Structures are given as C-alpha cells and as structure tokens.
C-alpha cells in the first residue's frame, strides 16, 4: 500500500493473492489492509492537505502532466498488466490506458481554470467575491472493470482541485492500482497527497471512508447496491458524495435507421470488456421492419467474435471477472430461453480446454426478449445482446425509459427530428446518436436515478471536488 509517500505492508501483516481470470493462475499478492490502515491513510492525507491545497494550480498541473507523460511512456507495460489482471483483450487494454491518460491531461489543463466571480450587491457599499476551494480529503472506491481509467478519472480532478486522497481499488485488480500510484510517485507527488489502501474485505475500509470526520468527500464507482449503502452513510455524516453506479442501457433502432449500420454498432459495443461495462447496451429495441436485417448482421458479427485469453491474437472477448459473474450471465440467459427467447448465437458457458481454467461465457445473441425475463430489467454485465422487437414507434421511448437506471442510451436514426425527440425524451445521462463511443475526458459522465449522483470528466468533474465560498466586502 502507498501511505504517506511510502510503500508499506498492512499493519496486520496479512496479504491476499491476485489471479488471472483467464487462467486462474496467481499473478501477485498485495497487502490486505483493514480499518487501521485506512485510518493511517486518512491521517496522511489530512496532514498533507494544508500544503497541497495551497500549491499553485501550475504546480498541480505540472504533476498531472508528468504523470501523463510517464503513463504514455509505459502504456504497453500497463496494458499488459491490465490484460493479465483483468482479462480484457490487449487492444482494449491499450485503449483504456490511453483513455486513462486523457483524464490526467484534461485535468492538468483544467487545474488552471478554476476561477471565481465578482457578484453584484443590492448595497452600493458592498462587493461580493465568490471563490472555489478544494473540499479536503477525498476517499475513493473504484471497480475492477476499468482498473486504470476509473482511478485517473477520480484522482486527476481531485488533485487538480487541490484535494488529497485515499483510494481503495477493487480486490480483483489491485496491481493496476499499484501501477497507477507508482506513476504518481515517480512524477514526484508529495508524501500523503495520494494514498492507496488495498483490502480483500472492502467493508471495513468503506466504514472508515464514510464515517471518519476528516474525509470530506466520498466518490464511488461500482454496483448500485453497494453505492446506495455507502452514499447513505456518507451523506448521513454530511460528506459530499458522488456515486457512479449500474446501468441498463437501451439501444433503439428506429424505423428511419440503417439497420445494418446499427447492428454493426451494436455488435462492436456490446462485447467490449465482455459486456462488463455500466454503459453496455442491455436492451436492443429493433423496429419490426428491421428485425431480419438487424438480426442477420448481428448473427454474422457475433458468430465471428472469438472468446479467449486477452493476449491471444484475434480474441474479441476475454474472461469474465469471476465464477459468480459467469453464473449470473448463465442464469439470465437460461431464464430468457426458458421463457421463450432464442439464442441465435452462443447461449452457454465455455468450459472445455482452453477455457477450463478461466471464467468464460460464449458471445451470445438473444432474440424474442420480453419484459417478463430477468435480462430485461437486471444488469447482466456479460457478453449477451438481448434483442426486443417493437411494433409501434410511439411506444419505444417509454419502453426504453422503463428502468430504474438512467446511465447510457443509444439511438440509431437517419432523421434529425427523431434524434432530437429521443435525446430530449430519454431519461439517461449519456446518449449516443448513431454513435457507440459516447465518452471522453472532456464531457460529463454520469447517470440519473439508480445510476448515481454527480458527474465525472469535464469541468463538471472538478466541481465535485470544490467547495464554494463567498466573501462580502463593505467598502
Ligand atoms: P461489482 O459488482 O462491480 O464488483 P461492487 O460494488 O461490489 O461492484 O464493487 C465496486 C467497488 O466497491 C470495489 O472496490 C469493491 O471492493 C467495493 N465494495 C464492495 N462492497 C463494499 C463495502 N461494503 N464497502 C466499501 N466498498 C465496497
């Protein structure tokens, strides 16, 4: 763990192993921290806050630029580590490392754009100044599905704002987190400004993050269930909170869309990260007249996607994170098929050699999905594309909105009016229009309803780490 500028063991001396999800092989071990370690990390972050928050924006920007340059120079090594630890194909890991770098660069730039304002007063002898200052120690909990970019997306804006931080990564991907902290260390981050606590049992660390008075902000990315609980505790202690949670993205192919283009987009998008993404499409609504063309192209594309070890050439889908993830996917698919869906491609686990030691599920295409199936409303987090055919275009926005989640949505149409009506009518934070890559460091990422609170990326993302202060001057 990295606490107060030093690499340290857990106070208990315990460690836990990290495994490769494709082979089951142990690839490393890390300290198994507990509440004592988390408190020590908060103490270090709190002690460093005074000096870090009063550095110039330029000094903070320089640190982020240096970290970005180091990340770029190591991108191959980092991508290989990610594929080994998380499983995604090497090409996808390389893309994620670049995406992670974009947050470092963007917030290096944004650090120098935190400004204040003069505001008018009703009194002639009064002036108001509004300024923004760092909230204090930020506690961060990150997931395993994007084990490097989810860290920089939180750390970069916090550091740019002048916050210090304590981060607990997911227990299945602590080595990627360690690699990110090594970059910051090498870039010269002062002791105590960034602190890393690894733990096999996350709950005691979460308790410290949500209750220690010195923590002023909690940022979490993960499941809705855990996020809801942590956000509840943190807000009851009046900490600022942002949580980026689950999703159940609709993907709508309108009657005025090109169904082949839409199917190509869906096939490319759905299987990214083996479907383990909160913005992965979970309900593909296809207008009746496009059903054949859409499914025909999907069958062809999905049949070609090869599952396997992310290091092997031509592999498009890696392993899932663990056995529980495979069991959930199998349960959703079996339930759908039992209730009448057709598995046009896949529909089963991959258990024979060379899959037998890892956690694999075949890339799957389901047609005839209906609203009484689990897959229709629960987040599957796996390589399954569930297609729902609809008859009446007037219903489809309502169908798409029929979820407690509200993160991403996708629409395919060749009509500007249809696109605008969809954009305005869909209750989701991120909308792709004929586009399957609706994210960037320069735009806000986040959802509505059960998908969370707050935004990451862009200038919205840095606001999450800033307090507003007003000063009134009598002349
Ligand atoms: P997923 O289902 O994607 O693994 P989780 O919400 O379980 O989602 O995990 C996301 C992050 O939340 C991980 O870093 C995990 O360790 C952490 N986490 C899970 N449970 C708790 C908890 N009770 N307290 C604090 N962190 C937790």
Give a written overview of the molecule.
This protein has 475 residues and is an alpha/beta fold. It has two domains: 2-246 and 449-474, Aldehyde Dehydrogenase, Chain A, domain 1; 249-404 and 408-433, Aldehyde Dehydrogenase, Chain A, domain 2 (3-Layer(aba) Sandwich), CATH 3.40.309.10. Helices cover 39% and strands 23% of the residues. Strands 16-19-20-13-12-21-22 form a seven-stranded mixed β-sheet, sandwiched between helices. Strands 9-8-7-10-11-23 form a six-stranded mixed β-sheet, with helices on both faces. Strands 5-6-24 form a three-stranded antiparallel β-sheet, with no helix packed on it. A hairpin with a 2-residue loop joins strand 1 and strand 2 (6-7). The longest helix has 21 residues, at 90-110. The model has no long low-confidence stretch (mean pLDDT 97). The structure holds adenosine-5'-diphosphate. The site of adenosine-5'-diphosphate (ADP) has 14 residues, from helix 7 and helix 8.
């Amino acid at each position: 763990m990295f606490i107060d500028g030093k690499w340290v063991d857990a106070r208990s001396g315990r460690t836990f192993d990290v495994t490769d999800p494709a082979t089951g092989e142990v690839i490393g071990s890390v300290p198994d921290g507990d509440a004592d370690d988390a408190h020590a990390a908060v103490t270090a972050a709190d002690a460093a806050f005074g000096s870090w928050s009063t550095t110039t924006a330029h000094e903070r920007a320089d640190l982020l630029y240096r970290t970005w340059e180091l990340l770029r120079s190591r991108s191959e090594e980092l991508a290989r580590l990610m594929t080994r630890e998380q499983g995604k194909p090497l090409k996808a890991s390389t893309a994620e490392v670049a995406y992670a770098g974009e947050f470092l660069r963007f917030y290096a730039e944004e650090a120098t754009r935190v400004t204040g304002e003069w505001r008018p007063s009703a009194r002639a002898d009064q002036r108001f100044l509004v300024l923004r200052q760092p909230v204090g120690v930020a506690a961060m909990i990150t997931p395993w599905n994007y084990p490097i970019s989810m860290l920089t997306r939180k750390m970069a804006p916090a550091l740019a704002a002048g916050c210090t931080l304590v981060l607990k990564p997911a227990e299945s991907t602590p080595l990627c987190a360690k690699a990110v902290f090594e970059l910051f260390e090498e870039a010269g981050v002062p002791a105590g400004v960034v602190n890393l606590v690894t733990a096999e049992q996350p709950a005691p660390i979460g308790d410290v993050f949500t209750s220690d008075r010195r923590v002023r902000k909690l940022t979490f990315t993960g499941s809705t269930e855990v996020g809801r609980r942590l956000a509840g505790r943190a807000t009851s202690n009046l900490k600022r909170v942002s949580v980026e949670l689950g999703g159940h993205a609709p993907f709508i192919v309108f009657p005025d869309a090109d169904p082949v283009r839409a199917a190509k987009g869906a096939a490319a998008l759905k299987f990214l990260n083996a479907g383990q993404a909160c913005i992965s499409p979970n309900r593909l609504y296809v207008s009746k007249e496009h059903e054949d063309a859409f499914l025909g192209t999907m069958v062809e594309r999905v049949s070609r996607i090869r599952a396997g070890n992310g290091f092997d050439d031509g592999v498009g889908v890696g392993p899932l994170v663990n056995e529980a993830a495979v069991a959930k996917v199998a349960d959703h698919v079996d339930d759908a098929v039992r209730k009448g869906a057709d598995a046009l491609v896949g529909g089963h686990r991959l258990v024979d050699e060379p899959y037998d030691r890892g956690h694999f599920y075949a890339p799957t295409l389901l047609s005839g999905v209906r609203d009484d199936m689990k897959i229709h409303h629960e987040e599957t987090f796996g390589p399954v594309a569930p297609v729902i055919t609809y008859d009446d275009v007037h219903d489809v926005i309502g169908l798409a909105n029929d979820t407690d989640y509200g993160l991403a949505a996708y629409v395919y149409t060749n009509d500007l009016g249809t696109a605008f009506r969809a954009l305005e009518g869909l209750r989701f934070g991120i909308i792709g229009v004929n586009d399957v890559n609706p994210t960037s460091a320069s735009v806000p990422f986040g959802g509505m309803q059960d998908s969370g609170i707050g935004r990451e990326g862009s200038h919205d993302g840095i606001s999450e780490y800033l307090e507003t202060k007003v000063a009134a001057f009598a002349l």
